[in-house]
Every structure is written in structure tokens, then in C-alpha cells.
Amino acid sequence: MTGGSAKPAELVFRLDGPEAAALKQADERMGWLIDRVGELTIRLTADPFESLAMSIVGQQLSVKAAAVIRGRVRALVPAIAPEALLALDEETLRGAGLSRAKVASIRDLSAKALSRELDLERLDGMENEEIIRMVSAVRGIGRWTAEMFLLFSLGRPDVLSVGDFGLQRAAKWLYAMEERPDKKYLEQHAHKWTPYRSAASFYLWESINRDIIKE
Q1: Which of 20, 152, 188, 194 has most Cβ atoms within 10 angstroms of its Cβ?
Q2: What stretches of the chain show up as alpha helix (H) in DSSP?
């Protein structure tokens, strides 16, 4: 999917679905993992602006700490929107637990959304790399955050974040690969997962979430 269709509220990967069938046929080890995990549901963040704003809030924090600070920001701004965030002064945002760098990033995100430099209305018609370039122009947002946006907000089906440590770790385990200085574990097998690299990524992450990787 590169645009044009309505975004679902969640992604459901069934064992009899097209993603599982294609991945099993193309990659025996990935097929084993899919059977081991079973059906998988991924909830998507509905509002793209809120998704990006909360991604900034949660950067470089543990899951628990990020949830606490996101809760504080939501208490200040129940409806996360550019105008509402810009209306808060720096001291208020800092009081919620945001660093000065994150406050600057939130302000830049909000300003670019209002000016349409970050045109979130055009997302459905944009290719993945176009979106990555546009989103990465926001202060504090790099390629990894943009890729997570494609996966967990837009639900794009063929995204692979080669720099993600969790995916690297899971791929190294699944394919029993030797340690590599360049950490290019994903690249050895990802060509087999197209056009469903997102589904493969979700299953790799799930191997960590469920501690399958430790069995």
C-alpha cells in the first residue's frame, strides 16, 4: 500500500491470510515463527499528528516512563493538536517532563503541521520514502521514528527498519547467524519478505515481546 485506501484501526495477521501464506512460502524460518506466534493484531494510532507528537515525547525513554509523560501531556492537552501544543509555554511542557530538546521538537512539529510544510493531508497519496523525507525534516525526528510512523500509524505493509536493534536481534536469533560487526542481519533475509516486510517485522518483534527468543 502506497496510498489511496482508507487506513484500518488495526492490522490483523491471520495464519490463513495472504501475508502468512506468502512469507511461509518464501522463508521457512519465518514460517516457523509465524506458526509459533499465531494470529497477530497490531493496533494503529489513528491520528497522524498525535502519533508523531507522542513519538517525540517517548524518545529515549523506557516504555513505562514514556507512558507516564504521555499521560501528563494528554492531561494538559486532551486533544493533541498543533494549535493546542503551541499554546502551551515551554515551562508548562517542561513541567510535564519534556526536555528542552523535545519541547523544541514539539514546537517545530506543530509549526510545520500548521504551515502545511508537514502536510499530513497528503499522506494517502505519498510513497513511503516521500513520507520519510517529509517527516524527517521535523526537528528531532530521524529515519527510525519516521519508519515507526509508517508501521504503527499508517499501517504500510512493506516497511523494514534495518536500523532497529530489536529487529536485528530477533533476525540474528531466528536465522542462527554469527556476530557481524556491521550488524546487517536483516539484509541477509529481508529480500524474501517483500511485499510483506512489515508483517515479518511485527512477528520478529513479537518473538521478543513473548520471550520466544529466550526459549
Answers
A1: 20
A2: 18-26, 28-37, 48-58, 63-76, 82-86, 90-95, 100-115, 128-136, 143-152, 165-174, 197-209
Domains by residue range for the chain, with CATH: 10-44+159-214 (1.10.1670.40), 48-152 (1.10.340.30)
pLDDT (tens digit per residue) in 143-153 = 999 999 999 99
The closest alpha carbon to 181, from 173, 172, 189, 190, belongs to 172
Q: What is the pLDDT of residue 12?
A: 97
For residue 127 the three cell numbers come to 510513497
Contact 144, 163 (CB under 8 A): yes
User: How many angstroms separate the CA atoms of 215 and 57, rounded?
Assistant: 34
Handedness of CA 53, 90, 93, 114 (dihedral sign): negative
Here the cell at position 126 is 505519498
Q: How far apart are CA 55 and CA 49, in angstroms?
A: 10
170 close to 208: Cβ distance less than 8 angstroms: yes
Instruction: Give the span between the Cα atoms of 148 and 171, in whole angstroms.
Output: 18
195 vs 16, 111, 116, 199, 201, CA distance in Å? 17, 35, 31, 9, 12
Rounded to whole angstroms, what are the CA distances from 163 to 22, 101, 166, 186, 211? 24, 23, 9, 9, 21
- The CA distance from 105 to 26, in Å, is 41
DSSP summary character for residue 27: -
